[in-house]
Amino acid sequence: MSRVAIVTGAGKRVGRVLAEGLLADGWTVVAHVRGEVDDVPPGSIRVVADLSADGMAGTIMAACPEPPSLLVNNAARFSPDSLEAFSADELGAHMMVNVAAPALLISAFAEVGAEGDRLVVNILDAKLAAPNPDFLSYTLSKSALATLTTLSAQALGGRGIRVNAIAPALMLLSEGQSDSNFAAMHAFNPLARGVTPEDVLRALRFLVDSPTMTGETLTLDSGQRFWRLPRDVQFLSRTPD
């Protein structure tokens, strides 16, 4: 397995933690960001691309010093909407970044011809295990990405390429969420343990070290799915126990 990895959305939040962890593990990391002024972890190779733009997959692949063996589709669009306030344009924007871009990157990744074990990891959302109607377009797009994970694993297994996913629950303050709500909801689950970006990094390392695992999703939610919450946590108060 070569030691070149691509991480999309590597400039901040969980993507930055993943890129920094891979760098610490000895990987050469191609760190994708969207904006010209966006920072990346020191030591990584910075590549700027709008995931909704034509040719973005080629731009990202061209930044790799050698064929990559790991692709982490982490970047995502996350904007609020609902069935009552549904917009086809908003759904299309989510599907472009959260589904079409990963599909194009997986296709380009499969064609570059690195030898040995190769791995794609798609970052999903734990809410798919117990869905609610909040953030409708986002949820639909992540559901489609989950299906893409399965179909890509089926299509690429014969070429030695594994495709898996990690589905974390709330890790960091979301747009529109209050500090007090985050403090109350972060560990709002049966284990009373909040999920962190470091948990996602540990799951990624596990997938790297599991050469016979493909088509699987690792859900990191401390059992929150068992409660089947009716709404997104930022719209709830802490009442179940």
Q: How would you characterize this protein structure?
A:
The protein has 241 residues and is α/β, with parallel strands linked by helices. Helix content is 34%, strand content 15%. The protein contains six helices and seven strands; from the N terminus they run E-H-E-E-H-E-H-E-H-E-H-H-E. The protein has a seven-stranded parallel sheet with strand order 3-2-1-4-5-6-7, with helices on both faces. Strand 4 (70-73), helix 3 (88-111) and strand 5 form a beta-alpha-beta unit. It holds the Pfam family adh_short_C2. Belongs to the short-chain dehydrogenases/reductases (SDR) family. Keywords: Oxidoreductase.
Looking at this protein, list some descriptive labels.
single chain, 241 residues, alpha/beta, 34% helix, globular
| Structural class estimated from helices and strands | alpha/beta
**Estimated helix fraction:** 25-40%
Specify Rg, calculated over alpha carbons: 17 Å
Q: What low-confidence regions span 5 or more consecutive residues with pLDDT below 50?
A: none
Strand order of the largest sheet: 3-2-1-4-5-6-7
Q: Would you report the number of β strands?
A: 7
Question: Which descriptor suits the 3D outline?
Answer: globular
Q: What characterizes the major β-sheet? A: 7 strands, parallel
Keywords: Oxidoreductase
Protein name: SDR family oxidoreductase
Family: Belongs to the short-chain dehydrogenases/reductases (SDR) family.
InterPro entries: NAD(P)-bd_dom_sf (IPR036291), SDR_fam (IPR002347)
